Predict the 3D structure of the following.
Amino acid sequence: MADNRKASRFIVPVAVAGVAAATIGLVPALAASGDPDLPAITAQQLIEKIAASDTQTLSGTFKISTDLGLPLGGLADLGGLAGGGGGSSSADPTEKLTELVSGTHTLRVAADGPDRQKLTLVDGSDEYSLIHNGDDVWAYDSKSKEVFHEKAAEGEGVTGEKGEKPAKELPGTPKELADEVLKAAGDTTSITVDGTAKVAGRDAYQLVIKPKQSGSTVESVKIAVDAANGTPLKFTLSSVEGGKPVVDAGFTKVDFGKPAASDFDFKVPAGAKVTEGAAEKGAGAEKLPEDLGKDFEKEFGGIGGGLGGFAGLGEGDLNVIGEGWTAIAKLDSGAPAPKTDEAPKEIQGLLDSFGDKVTGKFGSGTVFKTKLVNALLTDDGKVYVGAVTQDALVDAANAGK
């Protein structure tokens, strides 16, 4: 027990690098060869086309490849320390889908409106299926023969994300939404249309989003948009470090017809162990104050949700430095950072593999790096996190003194 308590002090520096995983959604994408000849279109018109898309049904296969520049295998082994494991079902989506943050995976997807979706992760002869059908969410891991079940919250799909926002918060027309997107981009973002692509046999436009600010780790975000119906078909997130994209995922086959109703049926296999989600939630891991997660969500989208659940971070005040692509979240834990040479040896090796010691006017600390999100943990207990370079984090820490 004492070893576990000691190890928990090191959850933050290990887990903070995993914030990048929370920024990855299951956005279908994967460009195929061939550049179709399509009518010219402006960025605003293409955004309007996306906003006007009313695609409700589809089925297909897509691949997702992720390269965060992290030793994610080691992070996965620490799941029990971070609040995972602990007897939870191997079919629990919150644990199983973390596999998507590393390597290349093949998935089959199907959707029939907001009440029925299915996602199947294929791994050799093993499959993991996540099914939302009406009031129920089922997950089945064929390898462990375990089933996870819970009641779907209103407006949630297979990923557990809430659906539509209240109408009063949304622009009234696709043009108004496009105007808002371009206005929000402001002086920090470039949004252009850069050619065309062939994706899963369909003609698509390429929407390219780039930071105008220096200091961001994001080189570009490219989205291929179906020329006929405005559905996103390609998503590629590239880092300024170059090399493989951080995320390159998408359809290799797609059909916008209505899937059969039977595709969403699920029957518990004989002998399978069933875990009910409500029981799991009753014994959930320690979480940060609710406002902290909300503030992160506001500034960094999915990043906030990922950091909000880290165990062991402790109470603290959150401030956001800067704006746009170079915004940095600063958290003062109020306690000195743990000394890494006191960490258990399995954690010590992991910290050393992606942590760089830095010094400045702020004092000294360690930068934990990924290709997308970096974090500076100072020796006096302050944490600076953002999709920014190491130099930007150090500058922010120096300015904070």
User: Anything to note?
Assistant: The longest helix spans residues 174-185. Residues 286-399 form a domain with the TATA-Binding Protein fold (CATH 3.30.310). Confidence is low (pLDDT under 50) at residues 2-33, 72-87, 162-168, 279-315. The chain has two domains: 29-281, 286-399.
